[in-house]
Amino acid sequence: MAGLTSSTIGRKYAMALSAMFLLIFLIMHLSVNLLSLGGENGPFNAASYFMGYNPLIQFVMQPILVIGVIFHFVMGFILEIRNRNARPVKYAVNGAAANSTWMSRNMIVSGAVILAFLGLHMYDFWLHEMTYKYIPGEGDANDLTRFWGELHGKFAELWRVIIYVVSFILLGLHLAHGFQSSFQSVGARHPKYTPVIKAIGTWYSILIPAGFILVAVFHYVTQ
Ligand code: HEM
Tell me, what CATH number does 167's domain have? Predict the structure, then answer.
């Protein structure tokens, strides 16, 4: 990784690869979450059990995901700091509003909000699950029907639903620029395909956050 991450181009490339990995993760994550719309006796419990107990997912995919997430955030901050230092004359003077979008100039802001959201999200779900699974007496780890009820219960409080929904909107803004930018950074530029990638990116950045919003709001209104 040292060679890949020691130049700005290399860093952008590595950043884009980690972004693409996270784009795929979000599709999978949303797919499992959408199963929860099937209700208490729907397929969500079985899917969650599989995701939480399959050794390949737990001990191979999950560590890769954690590394991918941390790498993406650390690299994002490094790139931002370097870009700022390399740009002593601030953007506004160059007429930034005219030659770049608000989203592209504020990736660090939307990224920081998503990072804060992930802190709450891990506390809400992951920490709870780890405690349940690994601390004796905290819960019956053999209860494989608990997942839906736990998720449902989390969205009983309006303040949490609001924080989640606002975070999903910022995730959408982050993805609106990030999706197509990651393809550009790996050199996928072509007069024919770039407009297609941009169109897919626009749809992706609307549908994925909309799906997460649907899940959060569904559980709130069906309490
Ligand atoms: C309504 C929306 C969402 C719901 C209901 C939800 C629910 C969950 C649940 C139940 C887990 C499993 C915890 C565990 O058992 O280990 C989880 C893990 C996770 N979620 Fe979400 N999530 C949502 C949105 C998001 C979003 C938008 C992101 C990213 C920006 C995200 C990132 C993660 C990550 C990184 C993990 C850890 C994965 C792992 O445990 O392997 N989630 N989420």
Answer: 1.20.1300
